[in-house]
């Protein structure tokens, strides 16, 4: 009984460690004030390494749509906004306004997100520790999805390259088969030509004999002509 109790306690203690396990590909999320059109507000920023900004924009737009909302450009500002978004793990029973900015930085893409809570304050780890943790996890998971998509794109490119190589190989194999067929055709033509040459030489000998015979005929007739006075 004591053994079973120890096993049970071990399993219970192990469960949180499994639940909290983070993907090794999850990017680091940084907290800090960032300038936006409402001023300097607390935001969460994530650096997506070796990412494509167009892919990031598409995936981020899809993620917001999953929360039954839509990003729209804020006039005269470099951010996009999604109003009255319900992300229960972050906003609870209320809604929040979400602002985001995606920008290239060399080979990387920087995603900055501001979460305006229902009370008008912007999400921060001090005032909203639980919600902040959920938002952090949301961006980490998003970073993993971006990484996965980038690798998928790379895989498709490599598969396309492999397909092109296979096509080139097939063309070369077909070309070799055609050349081999040409060689066989040429061999037959050579044999036919050799036979024709033999026939030609034999024909030449026959014609030479006939020519000599004809010369004799010409000389005989010419002699007869000369004998007529």
What are the SSEs and their pairings?
Elements: H1 2-19, E1 29-36, E2 39-48, H2 53-66, E3 72-73, E4 80-85, H3 88-91, E5 96-105, E6 108-116, H4 129-227
Antiparallel strand pairs: 1-2, 2-6, 3-4, 4-5, 5-6
Trace the largest sheet across and list its strands: 1-2-6-5-4-3
Count of DSSP H/I helices: 4
Rough shape?
rod-shaped
Q: What is the element string, with H for helices and E for strands?
A: HEEHEEHEEH
Low-confidence stretches: 1-19
Q: Classify the fold: give the CATH topology of the domain at 25-151.
A: Alpha-D-Glucose-1,6-Bisphosphate, Chain A, domain 4
Structure description:
- With 229 residues, the chain is of the alpha+beta class.
- The chain has a domain at 25-151: 2-Layer Sandwich (Alpha-D-Glucose-1,6-Bisphosphate, Chain A, domain 4), CATH 3.30.530.
- Helix content is 59%, strand content 20%.
- It is built from four helices and six strands; from the N terminus they run αββαββαββα.
- It has helices at 2-19, 53-66, 88-91, 129-227, and strands at 29-36, 39-48, 72-73, 80-85, 96-105, 108-116.
- The protein has a six-stranded antiparallel sheet, covered by helices on one side.
- Helix 2 (53-66) packs across helix 4.
- The radius of gyration is 44 Å and the shape is rod-shaped.
- The termini are far apart.
- Mean pLDDT is 91; it is low at 1-19.
């Amino acid at each position: 009984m004591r053994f079973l109790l120890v096993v049970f306690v071990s399993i219970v203690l192990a469960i949180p460690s499994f639940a909290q396990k983070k993907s090794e590909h999850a990017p680091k999320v940084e907290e800090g004030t960032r300038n936006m059109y409402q001023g300097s507000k607390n935001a969460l920023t994530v650096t997506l390494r070796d990412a494509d900004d167009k892919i990031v924009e598409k995936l981020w737009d899809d993620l917001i749509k999953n929360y039954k909302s839509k990003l729209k450009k804020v006039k005269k500002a470099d951010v996009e906004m999604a109003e009255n978004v319900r992300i229960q793990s972050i906003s609870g029973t209320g809604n929040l306004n979400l602002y985001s900015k995606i920008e290239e930085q060399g080979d990387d893409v920087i995603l900055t997100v501001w979460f305006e809570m229902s009370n008008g304050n912007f999400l921060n780890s001090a005032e909203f520790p639980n919600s902040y943790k959920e938002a952090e996890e949301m961006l980490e998971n998003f970073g993993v999805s971006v990484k996965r998509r980038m690798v998928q794109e790379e895989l498709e490119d490599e598969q396309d390259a492999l397909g092109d190589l296979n096509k080139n190989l097939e063309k070369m194999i077909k070309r070799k088969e055609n050349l081999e067929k040409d060689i066989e055709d040429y061999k037959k033509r050579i044999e036919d030509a050799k036979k024709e040459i033999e026939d030609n030489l034999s024909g030449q000998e026959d014609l030479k004999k006939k020519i000599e015979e004809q010369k004799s005929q010409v000389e005989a007739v010419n002699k007869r002509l000369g004998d007529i006075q």
